[in-house]
Write a structure and sequence with these properties.
Helix content: 25-40%
CATH topology: Alkaline Phosphatase, subunit A
Mean pLDDT: 84
Structural class: alpha/beta
Shape: globular
Number of strands: 13
């Protein structure tokens, strides 16, 4: 409550005179001490502790366990409405949805999709640019069209036909890659992933044979997320392989959320009154675990490109729970026969997300044998991620940010410094130079249909 009151007070000050923004000499406002750089943030949408912990216990997610063994971990408090564009923008800005301006998938008035041009506050990549620090951002929510940053940005713009969907990259679509001279290489990687998608899914899940028409529709409407994650992985690997070591790298994977929505009922049929057939459970019941294992292996591939000087964060925006438990299975179908997910994440108390951190500044907790969700403690909230990263990089936090650094994560090896703040990192120049919004209704309609298929919007 104290934090909320402080935020409201700061907001009133900023907006009392038409949001008079102070002029800040960012080059001079820095904290003392050496920054903890480089930092890697891996976002895993919808990652659920109750799924991950049994796999970790069995040694089937060794890279997550390795980070837990040498770092800290726990529950990450999320927002009341756990919609991905809202939360991942909050993670990257430290601001409330009302402050950063991304309040859903689509705008209530115009029904337009939210784009990066709708974000009203700076994100981590903008703030680092102010301080002459470099970043690479790959696949993060609401980054299309890309912004001019000191570093590299590859926007989340999945494509199918002529339209842009959540997750991958479309050869020829402008404003997906910054700087634009990198487009050719990024498009080439996306093309390689698309050509090898069948081999990738076979490697992860085995052969998907004998699917019913509905199961086939559910599967086909999930494949885009596997293509998306592998595309982002390949791009991030290429960036990490470069001789330039950037101060901050952010990579987003969304498939853990998609398989949870699609196949939770198959993985945990005992949680439902109406269960899939035994044959369907046999075929699709391991999809979630299979994809968690794959995501862990993707994490391992990124970690191979770091060393012990790096600080690593794994973050999920929310967890998952079974809902609509008493509804008939057929009632969960959406338009077009696509199978809807069994989770309706718009409840009053959404499950918390995951936070795992490891590296020189982070204290070591170790992993208990038989660790379970009820033994995990809350280590912070989605509001606290940006202030924590800024504190590690010795960049002041903003008084208008809703969170604060998660200093409980810091170990004795990291010289903690007094928190230094500026009134805001947002400036008149920033607000005046937001990317222009394009007007591609065909693309927007395809994106909207995908969101309907996932059950995000009606």
């Amino acid at each position: 409550m104290t934090r909320i009151l402080a935020l409201l007070a700061a907001t009133l000050v900023l907006f009392s005179c038409g949001r008079e923004l102070p002029e800040v000499d960012f080059k001079r406002v820095t904290t003392d001490g050496a920054p903890a750089s480089p930092i890697l943030i891996v976002g895993m949408d919808g990652l659920e502790w109750d799924v991950a912990l049994p796999l970790i216990e069995k040694g089937e997610m060794p890279h997550l366990k390795g980070l837990m063994d040498r770092g800290s971990y726990g529950l990450l408090e999320t927002l009341k409405i756990p919609a991905s564009p809202i939360i991942w923008t909050t993670v990257a800005t430290g601001k409330t949805p009302e402050e950063h301006g991304i309040e859903g998938f689509i705008k209530e008035d115009s029904k337009d999709l939210y784009l990066s041009s709708d974000r009203k506050t700076k994100a981590l990549w903008n703030i680092l640019s102010d301080y002459k620090m470099s970043s690479a951002t790959v696949g993060w929510w609401i980054t299309y069209p890309v912004e001019r940053v000191n570093g590299v940005m590859v926007a989340q713009t999945n494509t199918q036909g002529t339209g842009l969907w959540k997750g991958t990259i479309h050869d020829g679509q402008k404003r997906q890659v910054w700087p634009s001279v990198r487009e050719k290489d990024v498009f080439a990687l996306a093309g390689e992933v698309n050509e090898s998608l069948a081999d990738l899914t076979r490697e992860i899940f085995g052969e998907m044979e004998g699917l019913t028409q509905r199961e086939q529709a559910m599967w086909l409407s999930s494949e885009w997320s596997f293509r998306a994650d592998n595309t982002y992985l390949r791009v991030a690997e290429a960036l990490l392989d470069e001789s330039t070591t950037r101060d901050l790298t952010l990579v987003y994977f969304g498939g853990t959320d998609v398989v949870g929505h699609r196949f939770w009922r198959h993985a945990y049929p005992e949680q439902y009154d109406h269960r899939p057939s035994a044959e369907s459970i046999e075929t699709l019941g391991s999809v979630i675990d299979d994809y968690y294992r794959y995501t862990d292996s993707a994490l391992g591939r990124l970690l191979e490109r770091t060393d012990e000087s790096w600080t690593i964060f794994v973050v999920s925006d929310h967890g998952m729970r079974a809902e609509n438990r008493s509804s008939e299975f057929a009632a969960n179908e959406l338009a077009g026969g696509h199978g809807a997910g069994p989770l309706r994440l718009l409840g009053a108390l959404p499950p918390p997300g995951v936070l795992i951190a490891a590296g020189p500044p982070i204290k070591k907790m170790g992993v208990e044998a038989g660790l379970s969700t009820d033994k995990l403690v809350e280590v912070g909230s989605v509001y606290d991620v940006t202030p924590t990263i800024l504190n590690l990089l010795r960049i002041p936090t903003g008084d208008d940010m809703a969170g604060s650094p998660m200093v409980s994560l810091f170990g004795d090896g990291f010289e903690q410094v007094e928190r230094v703040t500026v009134p805001t990192h947002d400036t008149r120049d920033f607000l005046a130079t937001r990317p222009a919004r394009d007007d591609d209704r065909a693309r927007d309609e395809e994106r909207l249909q995908q969101l309907r298929d996932l059950g995000y919007i009606q």
